[in-house]
Each structure stands twice: as structure tokens, then as C-alpha cells.
């Protein structure tokens, strides 16, 4: 199956098997089939359903759950030879190039545990420290990492001094480290032709005031935080309604979104990139 043309490559089947093959029909996003008393729609993956449920349109989406994802709708299939960008389909008939990182909200969970605070306190601490945490950097590879592909990597805290050895600086550096990894993911999407002008920020960690305020500084674009909802289920419901009625519904969100804009702190990403490369050289030399 070739995602770029949304059809089987029959000539390849013939070359491989010596004949064509009987293959299942692939439904289009708004298609439906009858199976006994049941009507079945095409369905979608979790990220594609979330993008549909949130009504992301052409905005990029950054999700801060247990793992992190960054994705954006595109009219062309991703062809990333590095393997960083996965070439998924979206739930409307277009494409959904996506980058996944392993370390997102659970890095903040670990930082809370280390400091002995809850997430509200972690947020307040982070916002009390300056951008860049006075040179303190957290490389958040606590579970290895998927993008970049470093399954054996560990996390690191670099640039520690007497001045920045405080809970507030560590809280800030942890949030900035997670967001720097997702900023790298957005860069990978942009390298595939995506235009990143605004980001929808979702996932459990997106509720943190510190994450909301620091995100536009690190990501370098305005951030929209929609109201908390089960957007995967919302997307599945929209697709089901589309299949049943023939029209894709434009249901409004339950409450207004929060728009956060801030001056980009490019020095934070530059310092993070330097610290990460230094840390990875150390890891490779073990």
C-alpha cells in the first residue's frame, strides 16, 4: 500500500507474486460499510482523531502526555529518510507527518518527585526562575529517547553552579528541556515542508501555567491552549457523524481557548543544543 497515492501498488504485487492479489478494501475517511445490523466507519489512529477532534486545521499540534508528539496536517506525504518524521494519514484524507518523543510529562513527574513538590508548586517554581535557568540545562532522556533514536541514553543535568543550584532553576530547566525536544520535533516537520505558524498545546502537562507560558518562548510561535477534553473521542465522534450524515460537523469547543504569545528565547535552544551534544558525547564514551 502506498500512502502517497492512497492505493495498492498492484505492479509491485505482480512482480513479487507473479500475479495480482485479493486485498481488503481501504475505506476513505467519510466512507461507511454495513456489517449485519451495524454501520462501520473507517476509524483513525489516536493522533489523527485528536487533530480532527480539536479542529486543528493547519495549526501544528504539540501533545505533552506521558510521551510527546508534534504533528501537522499536510497535503503531501512525508518522505523523511532520517526516520524522524513518520508519514501517517490524517482523518480527513490528507496526511499527518508526526514526530514522537518518549520523554514529556513524566519528566515533570520525576522532577516533582525529586523536589518533593506537587505540579502546582513545580509550575510556580519554574516561573520564578529566569528564562534559560541561568545556564542550567536538563537533557530529559530519562527513558532513553525515540527522536533522536537513542534507546540507551540517560538524562542529564548540566551547567550546575552555586547560583543556579535551586529548586526553581531545576524546575525551569526541566520544563525547558522537554519543550526543547518538542521544538526540535517541529523543526523536523518544517524540514519536510510544514509551515509552523501556531501550535495547539494539548495533553496533561499542557494544563501547567508554566508550560503554557514557557512554550511560546521555546517553540518560537504563538501557542493556543484549548479547553481540556477527550479530543481523541471527540474526533472519533466527528468522524462517525461524517460517515452517517455525509457532512463533517464543525462542532465548537466547550470553552474558549487560551492564546499565549511571548518573545522567542533562542538562547535557550542554543544552550540546550550545546549541552545535549556534550552529554551525548559523554554517553557514547561510556
- In the predicted model, the low-confidence regions spanning at least 5 consecutive residues are none
CATH C-level name: Alpha Beta
Task: Report mean pLDDT, rounded to a whole number.
Answer: 94
Structural class determined from secondary elements: alpha+beta
- Name the CATH superfamily classification: ATPase, nucleotide binding domain
Shape: globular
The portion of residues forming beta strands comes to 15-25%
Range of helix content: 25-40%
CA radius of gyration is 21 Å
Beta-strand segment tally: 11
How many structurally independent domains?
1
Sequence of strands across the biggest β-sheet: 5-6-4-3-9-10-11
Biggest β-sheet strands, sense, barrel? 7 strands, mixed
Distance linking N and C termini? 42 Å
Number of helical segments? Answer: 8
Specify the CATH architecture.
2-Layer Sandwich
- CATH fold node name: Nucleotidyltransferase, domain 5
Output the helix-strand order.
HEEHEEEEHHEEHEHEHEH
Amino acid at each position: 500500500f502506498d500512502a502517497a497515492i492512497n492505493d495498492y501498488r498492484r505492479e509491485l504485487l505482480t512482480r513479487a507474486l507473479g500475479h495480482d492479489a485479493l486485498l481488503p478494501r481501504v475505506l476513505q475517511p467519510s466512507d461507511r460499510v454495513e456489517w449485519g445490523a451495524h454501520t462501520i466507519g473507517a476509524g483513525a489512529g489516536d493522533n489523527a482523531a485528536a487533530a480532527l477532534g480539536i479542529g486543528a486545521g493547519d495549526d501544528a499540534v504539540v501533545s505533552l502526555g506521558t510521551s510527546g508528539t508534534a504533528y501537522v496536517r499536510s497535503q503531501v506525504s512525508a518522505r523523511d529518510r532520517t526516520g524522524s518524521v513518520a508519514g501517517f494519514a490524517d482523518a480527513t484524507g490528507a496526511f499527518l507527518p508526526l514526530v514522537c518523543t518518549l520523554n514529556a510529562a513524566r519528566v515533570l513527574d520525576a522532577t516533582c518527585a525529586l523536589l518533593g513538590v506537587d505540579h502546582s508548586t513545580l509550575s510556580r517554581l519554574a516561573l520564578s526562575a529566569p528564562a534559560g535557568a541561568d545556564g542550567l540545562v536538563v537533557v530529559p532522556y530519562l527513558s532513553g529517547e525515540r527522536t533522536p533514536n537513542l534507546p540507551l541514553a540517560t538524562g542529564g543535568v548540566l551547567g550546575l553552579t552555586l547560583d543556579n543550584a535551586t529548586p526553581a532553576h531545576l524546575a525551569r530547566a526541566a520544563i525547558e528541556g522537554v519543550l526543547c525536544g518538542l521544538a526540535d520535533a517541529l523543526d523536523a516537520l518544517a524540514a519536510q515542508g510544514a509551515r509552523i505558524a501556531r501550535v495547539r498545546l494539548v495533553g496533561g502537562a499542557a494544563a501547567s501555567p508554566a508550560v503554557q507560558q514557557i512554550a511560546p518562548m521555546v517553540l518560537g510561535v504563538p501557542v493556543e491552549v484549548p479547553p481540556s477534553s477527550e479530543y481523541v473521542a471527540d474526533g472519533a465522534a466527528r468522524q462517525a457523524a461524517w460517515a452517517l450524515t455525509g457532512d463533517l460537523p464543525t462542532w465548537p469547543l466547550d470553552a474558549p481557548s487560551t492564546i499565549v504569545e511571548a518573545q522567542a528565547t533562542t538562547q535557550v535552544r542554543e544552550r540546550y543544543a550545546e549541552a545535549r551534544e556534550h552529554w551525548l558525547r559523554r554517553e557514547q564514551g561510556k
